[in-house]
Design a protein that fits this description.
Number of domains: 1
Low-confidence stretches: none
Number of strands: 0
Shape: rod-shaped
Radius of gyration: 64 Å
Number of helices: 2
Amino acid sequence: MIFQPVLAGAEIYIANMLWYLIVFAILLLAVEYYAWGPVKNMMEKRRQKVIDDLDQAASNRKKAETLANEREAALQNSRQEATQILSDAKSNAQKTGKEMVAQATADAAGIREKAKAEAAQAKADALNEARDEVADLSVTIAEKVIAKNLSAADQKDLVDQFIKGLND
């Protein structure tokens, strides 16, 4: 071998051992620099990516829960609004129906009053026409009976007396 043993009877070669230690240290540094450092960096990046993915998943889950709650609230509000709209529509329909019935009742009452007034007017017209005819007949009869023509004032007096006689 290249180195001499330190102790004559021992088989340990200190120089070889030092050489192995130096080579081992150099290899250890080379592995640390070329292999362990990149692997360690890769593992750290992977660990950070997993943490980020977990954080992102938790954030997405919270967002999804928030959106689900918002949708549920919006759906509930929509249901309440629909119920309110239906209630308002029913109320408006009932109100409109009542107004229409009231208007129709008022119109019918107005038509009845108008019909009564027209009937009273027709009755009054018929009575006036009957008076005129009775007056003419009375004058004609009186002329024939008395055989003379009456003046207008006399005719009026006769008619008034005749009408008084009809009313009694």
